[in-house]
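Residues and backbone
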Amino acid sequence: MTGAPTLVPPPLPPQLARAHLIGIGGAGMSGVARIVLARGGAVSGSDAKDSGALPALRELGAKVTVGHAAANLDQLGANPTAIISTKAVHQTDPDNPELVEGARRGIPVIHRSAALAALMSGYRVACVTGTAGKTSTTSMLTVALQHCGADPSFLIGGDLTQCGTGAHHGRGNIFVAEADESDATFLAYSPDVAVVTNVEADHLDHHGTVEAYTACFDAFVARLAPNGVLIANADDPGSAALADRSAASGVRVRRYGRLAAAAADARLLAYTPDSGRGTASLALTGSDGESHQVQLQIAAPGEHMASNAVAALLAGLELGAPLPGLLAGLAGFSGVRRRFELIGQAAGARVYDDYAHHPTKVAAALRGARQVVGHGRLLVAFQPHLYSRTRDFAAEFGTALALADVVLLLDVYGARETPLPGVTGALIAQAVPLPADCVLYEPCWVDVPGRLAGLARPGDVLVTMGAGDVTMLGPLLLAELAGRGSATGGAGPP
């Protein structure tokens, strides 16, 4: 795809000329800020706490402060043309002084998704969504297109290890975006290519019922651009049913899945793991209608990652990228931060960090981790995310975590929610069907590294897992392991 079409970017939407972002340090918000800056807009913003994203935004020219105050709206020397916010801000901080002051001044408030939709206008758009796997799939598609010379713009909910960022304003005519279904804000988008990795019950705190959650995916597909295409996972019952409903309504659908998915456009015939990598044999239906067998190398462990790669491959083909370039790009994909990311090694044990926070994601991540364990054991420190999710899926989390040898449960990371009576990490610990001495509950966050390091032996793989601040424990765990030295070979659960 070298020599791929380039695009003279359309004018920056007037409402984004001077954008003020509340919660600017978040993955999605900082990505919007990066793209607005790259397209010539002025950006200011604030966040409740400092993070690595803020210095990077300042270097790009954004005016950023830590802490919320009405005066933050004056950082650009004139009123912002829009305040960009999220539902989470309105839920957790409805009296935010910047929102209150903005309302007093009559400054429009727009949701992050509306800002992103405005930035995508004029591009060929590919959106990736689903209950699980959307960040990895979006990242794979982006890297594969880059390898083909397409230079797409992109916004992903995680940082690519290749470039260290999750957002970029490219010179090409393609925009790739991760589409968030958690509060149905992906209904702001009208993609040319929509990928749905799976549809399972989640985010019931917003949607209320499984039926309502499922219905939002139908509404998303209904927003496809004319001649758009849905790429759906035939192995997942929810995604497969969505594909059938969409096809019946006249939407063009391409399916991917295993051998049993006879109607799939990309059939996974076999998957072979190999020391943290994998090879997928595919029967791929070409533009000539004939089936061709291809080999897809994936530089990430787990068949779920192979499935994500196949979805990215089909999306890339729909966007006009050549098959050889896509295959080479996917083979060179080096991952996303917090998606089974290797943090380091000490005392003969390896420490990884993973973002999994839904039972399906946890099970997939742990099955992938099994590929790299070897003769050691798999130990996981899991931090539940949201009280409602912990309450609704405690049994499912317990089953998924039983794929590890030793499980340490942290307390719930509440995020935007207030505590629910009786809902703690112990609720999941009680549901893990492993011997009692292999399941621990540690409500004190600072004690987790010491407890986990005390259980570790040389050859073990330790994973910190969850969507909250559990990610900060990896370096502390490595320090504990290093300090214990050979003592990490001490006794622990069998």
Residues 14-111 form a domain with the Rossmann fold fold (CATH 3.40.50.720). The longest strand covers residues 266-274. The two ends are 53 Å apart (CA to CA).
